[in-house]
Amino acid sequence: MGMNVSRQVDLTENEFLQRFVGKSHVPAYDDDFWNNFLQYHISLPTNSQEQLSLDSRLETLCQSFISHNLLTGNFGSLVNVFLLKVSELLTLSDAESNVHIWHAFNALFIIRCLVKYMIETGSEYQLLQHFEALPVQPPDEGTDSSTGPSSADPNSTTIAIDARVVEETKAAVAKLVDGTKFETFLEALVNIIVVIPVKEFTYHLHLEAVNCMIILLSVSLFSQQAMEKSTIYRAIYRCQHANTLMSALLHFLSRMSQAPQTMFGFGTGGSFVFGIAESLWSILTFARKQPDILTAHDLPSAFREHYPLANQSLLLILILTNHHATKDNPYRVSLFGCCDSQDSPKDQPATFKIDFTALYNTLCRIVTIDQATLLLYLLLYRNQRFHKYVMAQQNLQQLVIPILQTLYNAPDSTSHHIYMSLIVLLILSEDDNFNKSVHLTMLKNVTWYTERSISEISLGGLLILVVIRTIQYNMLKMRDKYLHTNCLAALANMSGQFRQLHPYVAQRLVSLFETLAKKHARLDQQLKNPEANGGDADIAIPIGGPVTSEDMMQDLSVLEEVLRMVLEILNSCLSHQLVYCPNLVYTLLYKRNVFEAFRSHSAFQDIIQNIDMVVGFFSSRLQRVQDQRGELGVSEVLEVISKGASQWSSDRLRKFPDLKFKYVEEDAPEEFFIPYVWTLVCKAGCVHFSSETIKGVPTDIVC
User: Fold this and answer.
1) Distance between terminal CA atoms of the chain?
2) How, if at all, do strands 353-354 and 339-340 pair?
């Protein structure tokens, strides 16, 4: 005791690990061994390189463990020790529980490492075998069960491994694999998460419990069997404490407690302030530079390193709610049925209560992180109470601006993240009050929007600019028809409330139509005269392989749908808000020629007539004023438009149905969300997996 062991110690030489993974049974009541075995320091790996380093150090020991545990039952002993520590924690005071928490954490970390190794290299059934394995008495040798084997003689419980014993043991273990001990272990994990309060010295125990649940659920990554047949999934999804577990995880996220600088009182020098001796051995310490604040330029890394419990809880929420999405899933019911702690719902009982203000503020802080956007989507789309709360907020710019930044920085984001950010905007745009309020919220000096320096713009105007930019980015890079559809649907929902559009916003709206019109003309020309042009890769929205005439016809059809939608957006604004949009009228007058080619096109004639009527009305007024005054400046033209707008009647225009689009999730959401969620777990989480053996999720998505 009291020795400082090198941090580069060779783990395979450690006597405690050697005995644990060796041929000797270590009973759960051997306090001397377990107290020494569980008294070590470790700094948790936080990236794939550190995880790989730890895995490589442990691989030989794990192989030895797999070879011997079905006979020694030492994994079961370790689980029993962990269960005992947890049960004692629930009855001890803070002062009494410090050492128990340290030992419980260390036991759970070793369990997690072994479970991870078994999941990555074996099957779920083999994992459960190791949970249930009991020690085998060697032939012709007995042990006094009343006193137990002597820990002083490590050979007293060495098992003579021969073929007959191995076969008999495997047969016996096979009969015992009913998941009983696993379910007891799972219940202990849940108790740690939901019963033990999160304090500085319990933080890492909570984190390890969450990590262990993620590891257990990762069995879906390494197995091709349906999860309905998985013992682990069945146990987790029939958990009686789904509400309290989901509540605890969401509270961990909402509170966003920062990780303490020390683990269980260990300072940077390795001292232990609980008044006990130094640990006998150290597994591994990773040197890393901690960021000081939650910085915007590297928010995902800062969130993962500074707030690992919030990050891992968020990922676990996503795993639990997206598996079994179309079946009876108590975690989905729980998340989608929670309510604000300030409310007392009368219509339908809430599954649990949480402070929506704290949750909303946290999501605003981290919504540019992929997994936070996905949770926001789930809550807005599925939890009516949270949706209602968000739509009533006066500071919606705190939520919307970060989402716009994600879209603006599209090259730095995944296609899934871009898509979910747009879906969130689409859901928000379904609310008329939102569409009104965004044009009343003025922003100054939006420095991250660099296309043009704008000293002041409404939130609605900025939203329009970013969505248009996303459409253009999609045309050049992603070529995703559904992305176009969702972008335009959001603009369409807002179009009836467009007000006081900035001149640049009006220009970009009309320029979008102009850009699409040029693409339409080139594609139409190529179809009529294919030999005149060898193919323009920038014409079509969806691409893939050689472009055939059939492909071009399909692309032309898609392009015409998009053009029609843009015209409907312009028409909707003119029909409902013309008097408040003089800059749009000015731009239409200036760019009237871009509509020339579509006046005789059957797909656009009806709606072009409305735009022509507006342009004609204001053109004639401008001509009369110009005849009287001579050449007019910009301000004078806008003055004429404003006066003319007060005399304009929208009754002159042909009526079209109001543009109202509503997002509807597809019938099989699991096909999209499960690979997406596990990709986030692998890339953004604190737990890292071996991608070489992943089977259950497409490796091109995860890796």
Assistant:
1) 44
2) parallel
Task: Give the highest mean pLDDT range of 35-39, 277-281, 360-364, 626-630.
Answer: 360-364
Query: In the structure, what pLDDT confidence band is assigned to residue 537 with cuts at 50, 70 and 90?
Result: very low
In contact, 94 and 36? CB cutoff 8 Å = no
Of residues 159, 181, 185, the one with CA closest to residue 70: 159
C-beta separation of 31 from 262 below 8 A: no
pLDDT digits (tens, 9 = 90+) for 286-341: 444 444 456 555 788 889 888 999 999 999 999 999 998 777 899 999 999 999 99
**Helix 397-408 with 370-382: angle, nearest 10 deg:** 130
**Phi, psi of 276, deg, nearest 5:** -110, 175
The tokens describing 569, both together, are: 């957006």
Q: Which one-letter amino acid corresponds to residue 465?
A: L
Residue 433 three-state SS? helix
Please tell me the distance from the alpha carbon of residue 357 to that of residue 345, in angstroms, as a whole number: 17
Q: Does the predicted TM-score (pTM) go above 0.85? A: yes
CA distance 637 to 631: 10
* Strand pairing category for 281-284 and 40-42: parallel
Q: How far apart are CA 449 and CA 350, in angstroms?
A: 42
**Cβ(318)–Cβ(680) under 8 Å?**
yes
Helix (H) or strand (E) holding 599: none
DSSP 304-333: HHH-HHHHHHHHHHHHHHHTTTTS--HHHH
d(CA 377, CA 372): 9
Rounded Cα–Cα distance for residues 270 and 225 (Å): 45
Q: Which residue has the tokens 């990590």?
A: 211
3 state SS of 440:
coil
Amino acid sitting at position 54: L
